[in-house]
Every structure is written in structure tokens, then in C-alpha cells.
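[09:14] KT: can someone run the structure on this one? pasting the chain below
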Amino acid sequence: MKLYDFPGPPSPRRVRIFLAEKGGDIEKVSVNIREGEQFSEDFKKINPNCTVPVLELDDGTCISSIDAINRYLEEIYPEPPLFGRAPEERAQINDWCHYINVNGFMAVAEALRNSAPRLAGRAITGSRNVEQIPDLAERGRQRVLYFFEDLDKQLEGHEFIVGDNYSAADIGAMVVVDFATGMVKIEMPEGLSNLKRWYQQVAARPSASA
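[09:31] RB: done, C-alpha cells below
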């Protein structure tokens, strides 16, 4: 089994953190996306969408969706459970993972990919070139602020995003916060004490540096 990876971007980081929490050890293959290695013909055979991460199984099957990769890792490394133990908890974690992907990760990506000069003509990931739309960058930044507010509200009275157990939802949300505040320079608004308390806690976990 191999994990096609590259340090820096948020997407592969989510898998590395998940794997670190599990204590799993998988062979990693670096794909230098800064030099466009993801567009090589060899890598397109692994993932035609030209993105990382990709988990290649022993039989050659390749999985390129972050949630799908993490769910597979959950099956082969069941402890500690990061998608919940009981049906209700699993449903809530899955629900929040979806929310984080759509309203967090994609909002930050919308802001970045429609404004960064180095991404001109690359407004979406994948094999096709798409022109930037500046208005979408501004909308993305506003969506990120809404995302911060929603997380703060959810974390009121909760240690983690879903109750008192650290989960895949916390991993995804922490990476989104770092993506927004680091790469896109979207400052966290004043207040939001629940969000800031939670962030300090999850960012201090050893896995956060994976």
C-alpha cells in the first residue's frame, strides 16, 4: 500500500494527520505538485484528476477522495475510532465532515484559487484549465467567516466538534482553519472564544505536525 503525498497543501495533510492518530505506517511517495508532477502521464494513470493524496492499495486500486481514504484507514486501523463508535455519533461526524468540506475547505479554495496570481488559469483543481473569477474570491472569503461563526456555535459546550471525542471532523476543520489563516491570510474574527479554545487544543496534538 502506498500514499501519494506532498507536504504543504491541505488535502494530503488531512490524511497524514488521520494516519498519525492511528499510528499507522504506510509507504509514502512524494508527488511534487509545485513542479507540476501531478500532470505527468505516469501520475495520470494513478489519478486522472491530477490531485493528491492518492492511496494505492496492494491490488493496484487507487482511491483519491480524502474521506474515502480515511474511511479505508479506519477499517484497517480501527483504534482509536475517528468516525465514531455508535451509529448516532458516526452519523453526526459524517454530517460535519460533509459540512466542513463544502462550507469550509471549498470556501477557502474558492478564495485562494480565484485570486492567487500563481493560480491564474487554474481556478479549480484537475486536468482542465479554468479562468479565475475575482468575485468568487471575495465570496469565498465571506463564506470562510461564516464557517468560523458556525464552528464557534457548534463548539459551545462541546470539547470537540462532535461531543467529547476527537474525530475526523476535528481533523478536517483544523486543516481548514490553518488553510484559511495561513495560505489565504483570512484572520479569525474577534470573539469566537469557543473556536479559539478548540483550535489551541487540537493544534497542540502531536498528529497536527504530521
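[09:33] KT: thanks! The first strand starts at residue 2 and ends at 5.
[09:34] RB: yep, looked fine to me
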